Amino acid sequence: MTGLDAPVGIVGAGPIGLVAAMRLATLGVPCMVLEADPDLVKQGSKACLIQGDVLEVLDKFGCGQPIKDEGVTWTVAHTYVRNKVIRSAEYPHGPGFGPFVNISQYRIEQILLQAAEAHPDCEIRWGHEVTAVEQDEDAVTVRARTADGERTLRFGHLVAADGVRSTVRDLVGVAWTGYTHKDRFLITDIRAKLPLAKERHFHYDPSFNPGRQLVMHPQPDDIWRIDWQLPPDTDIDAERADGRFDQRVRAVIGDIPYEVDWVSTYRFHQRVVERLRVGRLLFAGDAAHALPPYGSRGMNSGIQDADNLAWKLALVHAGQGGEELLESYHTERYAAARENLRVTEATIRFMVPPSRMRRLARSTILALSHRLSGARDRVNSGRMAEPYVYADSPLVQSAADEPLLGAFARDGIVDADGRRTRLRQLLGDGFVALCFAPDTATAADLVAEVRAHAAEPSVRTVAVLPMTAPAGPLPSGVAVVRTADAELLAAYGAATGRWWLARPDGHLAARGRTGAEFTAALHRAVGSPAERPLVRGTR
Q1: pLDDT digits over 211-257, tens only?
Q2: Could you give the count of Cα atoms lying within 13 Å of 453 in the half-sphere of its Cβ?
Q3: CA torsion through residues 235, 236, 241, 247, sign
Q4: Helix residue spans in 27-63 (DSSP H)
């Protein structure tokens, strides 16, 4: 496309917009980010938790490890009822970044921004307030108000990542379905040395917030985020003026010295756009779906939106994908948003019962939770975020007996020529054929089948063998890794030999043993009907 300011424009320089920009840039697609604010605005912890699987996305462009190193990794979530622990859920650490890392959204944005500003295919334009959006068959035209007057810009595609109050969403007129909750929530970041384990602490009906909920999360540098559920008419400004706010904090932490780092109030939303794709325009993050903080699904699901759309846009701009592939962004991520809304709605209905009978039922469950395991199991403190499984996607092979299909690839430690790494770190730049086999002869047969496919996009081939398998010849260009992880080998069916097609976002699209199956799987994964030839790539 000629006459464009960039192949892809992105509205919003928050974490979702910056991740989309970096993923596109690393896949060879130049992009321009338009941000209404004149520079990055500090907003305290805001989204304060990034899930370990989501850090894998940031790791594809070098930002995962710095965030992990600076943040607070935790593996235990405590649930309290009336000041007593009723349950402590433990999450396995796994071979990667761990289950959850606490760090402020602002700090994540700083790290992402530094990477984006250093990349030659990312351009950030601050102080560009979008005022109009139009599209035709060839491009999207954006008008933006700047300090130097109005600017008109054209892009092949536009990503709207401008948050829950999305200007682009309003301009386009996409239906914003769902509701906004009437109760208010108070977020306070305090700096204090609290005698608490650096883990998640969720309270029902505590003495310091009776009748409602409170959750505490540790942050780096002795910052603790405290979230209060408040009555709708609470005036925090008045509380700060007359000393009641200090009393509120003291009721939680006691006489320990503290400093207030940030304070904000909000009402949460349960909303999703009717369409995540409108022609050449794609919605992502809070512009596409707004979720309550229970389970930390907002930013995490938004980053997964960005990863999903980036590889599809990259293939479209390379001429290797078409309308079906781009439409699958809506299909897959809308399904993910609906699942997140389903999970959070169940939590809301327990936390804030909508009827007298439900309030009575909840009170009974909470009262019995200290004594009965069945009651404890029904106390809903929010199911933690995890990657969505695209089991029903048109891009993914259908197999009811295979839970790995559509899922984010199971990880494990592997050895690559004496270098210890992880399976997931072999993914991310494009499609990868993972050939799991018990020996080199079986691996060579699988590789030959995979390479028998007659068209591209290019597919990198990785043979995964047991550590004990004897050395043997394999075709040139095949990366060979070995592993002693018996569970990993078993999960991927190495004993009988099987290839798996991993997408650029690390989700598994298909499995099989023959070249014909692989060709069909690749057609399906790029949204191309089997009878239509795939465009040969350049890689």
Answers
A1: 899 999 999 999 999 999 988 888 999 999 999 999 999 999 999 99
A2: 28
A3: positive
A4: 52-59
